[in-house]
Design a protein that fits this description.
single chain; 31% helix; alpha+beta
Amino acid sequence: MHIVRTAMPQQSPPLSTLFASSDDGVALQNTLDTVRETLGMEVAYLSEFIQERAVFHAVSAPGLEAMIRPSQSMDLREVYCKHILDGGLPSLMTDTSQHAIATDLPITQMIPIGSHLSVPVRRADGTVFGMFCFLSRHARPDLGQDDLTMVLAQSERVGTRLFGGQTLPPPET
């Protein structure tokens, strides 16, 4: 097995620089919290891709704040995002141990990540801004297409709020 040392997350600009008002940031945080709780996942975040890094702008990870915080960033090669966008990993992994790319990434064991659900957040022109991600330290065979559909809908709402100037309503549960 090839071991790669994962670099410590770096600091980046805060979420407040993305939104026109603090209400937008509160709405996003509420969406992350609600969807994470609905899915029964332990960590949720919104990332942005900046110069080959995933920057964590908003995070919901009660009790795991030392592991992941807003404004940290990680190399895109060391997280699932790029592999999902490239088609090497699916958006929904109920058991990451069943996916060779996931098991080869050091972050899978470091956290650990047992299940993962992630979809892109797109700008108004359709380009990818970053990812809307949810993960658990345990495999979650109960997750399915309905959960993925809900996260896709919420990521579209976040994209609209960030880039379309429209109001983000409360998340559907």
